[in-house]
Amino acid sequence: MTGDSTGTSSLSDGASAPVDSDLMARVHASLAAKLPEFRLESIEWMAGGHSGVTLAVRGTTESASTLRMVVKAAPPGRPAKGRHDVLRQARIMRALKDVNGVPVPGILFADDEDPPLFGMAWSTGHTYEPFIDPSPGIVDPGLIDRRARRAAGALAALHSVRPSAVGLGGESTLSLENEIARWSQTMQRVSSNLRWGADDLERELRRCMPSGLAPCIVHGDFRLGNLLFDGEELQAIIDWEIWALADSRIDIGWFLTLLDNSIFADLGRDVRGMPQPATVLAEYEKQRPGLEGVEWFLALAAFKMAAIFGQNIERHRKGRYHDPWQERLVPIVPMLIEYGRGQLRNGATL
Predict the structure, then answer these.
(1) How far is CA 148 from CA 22, 144, 341, 350, in A?
(2) 237-265: average pLDDT
């Protein structure tokens, strides 16, 4: 994560431990080899993302200018695959660096030694996920609305990029079948008393699966909590752990579900100014009109979100990490499952 975050979103999957001395030595050596003109002053562990180790680095250049960066490294001793493949994250940010409307941190260096790591430019701003971020909320009710609309435009710009135009034409695509299978595995690790109705939702998702659209670049976890803002200005889209070439509606369903007050109202958060999902979708469609079949993707997002929340709750309760906020989310898991089933059962439109 880059910039100044207001908190750790509950869509993360457990707390990371501060870096050990061996990894710190590895980072020192990589900085010396890749950026020999850089004079290191400080390295600090950053709480937040869980795709590896995230460090805030400060130093000076040969001209004595201050240089701040974020270094992300794969967890030591774990294979650099899936969400731990940090160099794949660097690859997508490099591919998008010159795309208008899709701000990403600039990549300063990448190092494929063990464990792999990369450095990216520091982006100012902060993140905030209105309903589920345990940190204090934004006071200005209009700011969330403006951020959500700005985010919708950025998402449309991302989905408008031709993968082949940015060097990603040979990337394998993620099918809707594989997306369901991925989160089904996560759901199976959730206690049965938390995931009541999830099996029915999964069966219905498979039964009425739509035809996929031509694959585009999807972020995979596109939400306000993964966007760095300075006021209402979007500075950077961050946390690219699960990007893929896939149906654009995967991102849309996920983003809109996290804006839906009917799911999260019982958390008791005072989120004044949260726009209606239909309003945000309309903002997206200004650039990419004619979208159909969003309801199925809202159901898919609810299934995925219930699996992630449920797994996080299980990890907290089993002592994998301590996060009392997870207990607040316990009633949300069955609500998400029922919300997904309702989208498929009623064919509701936004």
Answers:
(1) 41, 6, 26, 16
(2) 95
